[in-house]
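Journal club side-thread
Mid-discussion, someone asked how the predicted structure for our own chain would compare to the paper's figures. Pasting it here so we can look after the session.
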Amino acid sequence: MSLPQQQIHDEEMFFLTGKVRQVLDSLYIVAVDQRRIRAVQAAGCLLTPEAGDVVLLAESAEEKTYIVSVLTKNNAHTAHINLPADTVVSAQGGDLLLCADKRITLNAPEVHIYADKGVAEIRDTRFTADTVELSISRLRAVWGAVELRAERVVQRISRLYRRIRMEDSQLEQLHCSVDKTYTIEAGDVTIEADERLRLDGERVELG
């Protein structure tokens, strides 16, 4: 298929259109009429050319040819943006991929993320915030070890079920207030007091 060739002579540069026939690493074989031209992607061409794409070429007097722009995509569902270093932005079939060799930074007064499903896999993370509000219908968590330090913890729970193999608590003071019934069931119960043990009630049954 022969493509119309547009030549704009500006002292040392010709501009023409062609179709990418083959991609060899960073070298592109572009068909222009009956010719096959070897070209490289220009730094200003952000969209990475692919086989079948119609591109705009810039041919210099030194016989160097650059792809300066992708005019028409052969596959409209796939696109890759060429960025410096090892940064990749690509879109394929409705998926968007953003990769960086070192760091990705988002900086804005507000950031909103909306999704039906999300997955985050981070080896080491640090989260800092003044205020955090969470609204979760159901939470399931698996932890190897948890260390929590807080000045104050307030919990309002309708029902709490816990299965603990061993619990070791060291408290300076403990105050427990139960409105109705407080029941302890155990094989052995030991209560030790260094100074005084007091049982107070309208009726106390032992044994």
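Post-session note: The chain is about 0% helix and 25% strand.
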